Amino acid sequence: MRTDYAYYPGCLLRGTGAEFADSLEAVFGHLGLSLEELPDWNCCGATSGHAIKPRATLALGMRNLSQAAEMARPVVVPCAVCYHNLRAARLAAAKGDPELAAASMPMAPGKLAAVEVVHPLEVLTSPEALETVGSRVTSPLEGLRVASYYGCLLSRPPAAVRFDDTENPTRMDRLVAALGAQPVDWSWKVECCGGSLGVSATPAAIDLVSRILSGAEDAGANAIAVACPLCQANLDLRQFEVAGKLRRKVEVPVFYFTELMAIAFDLPKAEKWLKKHVTTPFPLVDSLLDEDE
Amino acid sequence: MDIAAKVRKSSGVDVGRCFQCRKCSNGCPVVEYMDIPPARLIRMILAGQAEKVLSSKTIWLCASCYACSARCPNDIDFARVADALRTMAVREGRAAAVQRIEAFHRAFMEDLERRGRVHEPALLASFKLRTFDFFTDFELGMAMFFKGRLPLVPRGVKDLKAVRDAFGLEGGGKGGRP
């Protein structure tokens, strides 16, 4: 199994989603996997880039890819939005995108298209990696019923990302099962949370979030696992608004899958990251750890 | 050039392959907020109704979730079509049918152009200034602040010239209003 990776954290992992970066780095370190940050990465453009400035966004994506190409190893991209955009830039380089004629490229397209852009879930769910993960679990997450939420950009569009099955991805489900938690079967794992509209068309986003949270509760989940800082923020921060809309109590803690790994591995800093969540995960996490004793 | 040809030129997507199965409209998570469902918008592109298409709310409300793109039996990537239409509307200097969404995209790209990376508090402040809306999400912002989730110091890329050069490709100068 490959152990050295280039690393593109992205803006949100250095901002509102810092717990994702911190927990990912800790978990990779614990498993003996190294992450070396790209020397001077830029923002991937998120949704706004391809929405109004597609040429500039492609050129910025190429700039990130060229740095990974120079490091000559696969680049790990944890944020689903960045992952999608870097994969899209790679596909554009491979296929000769119409917008490319106007975008300057820092390197030959063939070299850019050869960069392996991987999500940490891909690294962690090979049969060999799952076995290693399982062997490092010291506090199995028994009693945790997890709805694995993949959202849009990890698995769509399939031509660009090729992450897993498009409509029913299972990588995160398999990972949480290896941690001793019970993955629940539910219908909303690839529905959109409205992350790109969260600030600018908030009522629509609250609608989408309420469907996802209700879907997880109806399937019997007591936690949601995510792999994207926008999904996490949207699902975690908007629960009080969803409760107001549905006129009932809504409280489903939303964890990054890497935080669940850190809890199962008994990594000391997990508590610090969880304190940043707005929907408190503590009664649930404490009850899990109590049962161990 | 008619609008279908323009879409094909800038996105590589041939909307002429649509046979109106409406999988895109049926699976769209935000269709109830749109004025024209995606399948009908495609039909209108083919009918050459550029004016209605480019002034629709639909092109701004598309959340770029790619559910339609993944499910289209004819490989029409509607999310990319929406990108092409939005970009066309911006380059033509049209007023967006959903101004808050356009304001957010512009605030985002200006923040990106300034530092090469996006700093959430600066982005949100700039969005609020553009929309004169200072109270929405105030509670949420305070919750994030007290949880330590808002980074205080912005960090940018070292090679800012490369970032500015990328923006230069777009034409029309800095990310300001057309």
Keywords:
heterodimer; A: 293 residues; alpha/beta; Glutathione S-transferase Yfyf (Class Pi), Chain A, domain 2; Rossmann fold; 2 domains; four-stranded parallel beta sheet; 15 helices; 8 strands; B: 178 residues; mainly alpha; 11 helices; globular; disordered C terminus
How is this structure best described in words?
The complex is a heterodimer of chains A (293) and B (178). Chain A has 293 residues and is of the alpha/beta class. Chain A has two domains: 4-121, Up-down Bundle (Glutathione S-transferase Yfyf (Class Pi), Chain A, domain 2); 140-286, Rossmann fold, CATH 3.40.50. Helix content of chain A is 49%, strand content 9%. Chain A has 15 helices and eight strands. Chain B has 178 residues and is mainly alpha-helical. Chain B folds into two domains: 3-91, no CATH class; 99-168, no CATH class. Chain B has helices at residues 3-11, 23-27, 38-46, 50-54, 58-61, 67-71, 78-91, 99-115, 120-131, 138-146, 160-168. In chain B, α1 crosses α7. The longest helix of chain B is centred in the middle third of the chain and has 17 residues, at 99-115. The radius of gyration of chain B is 18 Å and the shape is globular. Mean pLDDT of chain B is 91; it is low at 173-178. Chains A and B meet through α2, α3 and α10 of A and α1, α6, α7, α8 and α9 of B.
Q: Number of DSSP helices of chain B?
A: 11
Number of strands of chain B: 0
How far is the first residue's CA from the last residue's CA of chain A? 34 Å
* Estimated helix fraction of chain A: 40-55%
Structural class designation of chain B: mainly alpha
